[in-house]
């Protein structure tokens, strides 16, 4: 039995639809799934067409000779914010079906709209939720009726099997990084020889715009000894930079301190970044993280007023955000912050507030996005039930919410925010004084502001 796991190429660095970044990042869930398959005696391979820049036809041709092919619409780093342009994925699935006898699909899109994705792809089945426990059962040839967590068709009837239980992270083997083209992965603000890692899955917050259904409920953690072994294995293969892709890394404060102590003791040639909330950091924690070679932290700020933050159910205030940012800067760790335009109540004044707050916080790398109303979120449900609101289009995964502002307005304001922040003389002089990675960062900036 030969199984291939495919991550499609999105076609460009920044998608025109949704302006989604399509960096070549490690498809971590495919690597862990491949490791599970190998542990069960099944020959597994990964085709990261996104890293190799292989279009649908080329990717499909490489599916020949495999018994079962699984194509993901979203690898782990995009589970909560999936691509809005389904064309590259659908074209890759079609090409795979022409080359392989059995093709399955997985990812966030099929998790929230399984019947629709089954119809669109004509796949043998849709994998809902985390793939590591489901794909091995399908690869081993278990009858579809007996596999938890899939949607499939029998005699024209769409059948939704019961959900699969959540994956226990300590039961997963180390990711099969050896099956990936590690030399292809990088992050503009961290450098190359780059991998994704995870200490936890899930989120303790309940923001109304974030798609969490693929993760399941709550937060599950991986023990530090298991994570440490994965870090050492990745470094042995040449990794020197990493992003812990956990949604709220420091919500597990005690465990982060334990990991930092291990990293400090080992003193590996290894720098890393993570993502968390600005009310989940403190001076002791940040100092330990800095000593452990954490050089960048991502934070979701989203809005520019306490009223807007409360509407989003963020559970944080501007005062807490300011205080958290002060502590991170004191620790000497760089910051990347996410801001979002286009919530239902948004006016152009709200967008001005976001820009003003970004300038006040002065992160190293602010990112401005139009919020997407993903199916499976409270925001999507609200738009469907409120006649005063509308989706920007009638596709399965709309690009935006329109009310006082149209999608064209939101794109214009987002582009304006980028230009106003990054083209300030003071910011430009600061970046020129630290030129490492500047060429890649400029390429990304230009790709974003010119995306249509």
For the structure shown, list the relevant keywords:
452 residues; alpha/beta; TIM Barrel; seven-stranded mixed β-sheet; six-stranded parallel β-sheet; 19 strands; 19% strand
**Unreliable residue stretches:** none
Question: What top-tier CATH class of the largest domain fits best?
Answer: Alpha Beta
Q: How many domains, as an integer?
A: 2
- The CATH topology of the largest domain, please? TIM Barrel
- Measured as a percent range, the helix fraction is 25-40%
N-C termini distance:
43 Å
- Indicate the proportion of strand residues: 15-25%
Average residue-wise pLDDT:
94
| Rg, Å, rounded | 21 Å
Shape: globular
- Work out the number of β strands: 19
Main β-sheet, spatial strand arrangement: 2-1-3-4-5-6-7
State the CATH superfamily name of the largest domain.
Answer: Aldolase class I
């Amino acid at each position: 039995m030969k199984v291939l796991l495919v991550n499609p190429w999105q076609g460009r660095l920044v998608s025109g639809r949704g302006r989604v970044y399509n960096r070549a990042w490690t498809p971590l869930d495919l690597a862990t799934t491949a490791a599970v398959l190998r542990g069960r005696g099944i020959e597994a391979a990964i085709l990261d067409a996104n890293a190799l820049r292989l279009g649908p036809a080329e990717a499909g041709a490489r599916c020949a000779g495999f018994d079962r092919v699984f194509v993901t619409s979203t690898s782990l780093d995009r589970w909560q914010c999936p691509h809005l342009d389904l064309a590259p994925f659908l074209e890759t699935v079609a090409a795979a079906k022409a080359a392989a006898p059995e093709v399955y699909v997985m990812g966030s899109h099929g998790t929230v709209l399984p019947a629709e994705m089954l119809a669109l792809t004509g796949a043998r089945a849709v994998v809902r939720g985390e793939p590591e426990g489901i794909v091995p059962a399908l690869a081993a040839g278990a009858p579809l009726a007996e596999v938890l967590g899939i949607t499939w068709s029998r005699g024209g009837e769409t059948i939704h099997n019961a959900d699969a239980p959540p994956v226990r992270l300590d039961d997963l083997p180390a990711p099969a990084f050896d099956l990936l083209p590690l030399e292809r992965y990088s992050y503009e603000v961290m450098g190359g020889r780059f991998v994704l890692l995870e200490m936890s899955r899930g989120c303790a917050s309940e923001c109304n715009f974030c798609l969490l259904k693929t993760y399941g409920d709550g937060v599950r953690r991986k023990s530090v000894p298991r994570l440490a072994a994965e870090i050492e294995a990745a470094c042995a293969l040449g990794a020197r930079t990493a992003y812990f892709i956990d949604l709220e890394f420091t919500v597990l404060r005690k465990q982060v301190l334990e990991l930092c102590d291990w990293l400090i003791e080992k003193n590996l040639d290894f720098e890393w970044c993570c993502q968390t909330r600005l009310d989940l950091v403190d001076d002791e924690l940040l100092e330990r993280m800095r000593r452990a070679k954490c050089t960048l932290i991502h934070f979701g700020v989203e809005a520019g007023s306490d009223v807007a933050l409360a509407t989003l159910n963020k559970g944080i205030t501007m005062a807490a955000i300011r205080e958290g940012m002060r502590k991170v800067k004191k620790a000497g760790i760089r910051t990347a912050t996410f801001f979002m335009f286009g919530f239902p109540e948004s006016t152009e004044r709200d967008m001005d507030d976001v820009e003003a707050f970004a300038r006040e916080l002065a992160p190293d790398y602010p990112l401005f996005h139009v919020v997407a109303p993903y199916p499976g979120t409270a925001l999507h449900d609200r738009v469907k039930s409120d006649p005063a609101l509308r989706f920007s289009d009638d596709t399965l995964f709309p690009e935006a919410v329109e009310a006082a502002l149209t999608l064209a307005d939101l794109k214009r304001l987002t582009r304006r925010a980028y230009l106003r922040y990054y083209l300030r003389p003071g910011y430009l002089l600061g970046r020129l004084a630290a030129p490492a990675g500047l060429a890649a960062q400029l390429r990304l900036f230009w790709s974003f502001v010119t995306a249509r």
